[in-house]
């Protein structure tokens, strides 16, 4: 379901928007919010609800790992976009799950006309790191067309 208004979206977002994602703002077009669900000091798997305002997306990026690693996105509210480098973009809806293998260049974010949240799960692995790349161009982002039924 599409949510253009923040107040309506907040009622639908079961995990809460959280605080402005200031620490990573340089890697996003638009505003994002972060609500950690686990504490990495107490749990081996870091999970956070990441919320994107309409049109917000993160830069292209790659999750690296020598063994294991990667990321899982569990879509929880709104409409979003996910794209791997060289492939067609996918529209994301609540209930969709995306597994991103280590070494895959990709981005994710909200649809142009809807707030969007997903739970980001950082998969445990050896020598895991994240490489932030260039911003997603408007042309790349706008190539994702949302089909409504």
TrEMBL record:
Q: Which residues form the Cupin type-2 domain?
A: 50-113
What species does this protein belong to? Answer: Roseburia faecis
Q: Which SUPFAM superfamilies match?
A: RmlC-like cupins
| Gene3D superfamilies assigned | Jelly Rolls (2.60.120.10)
Identify this protein by name: Cupin type-2 domain-containing protein
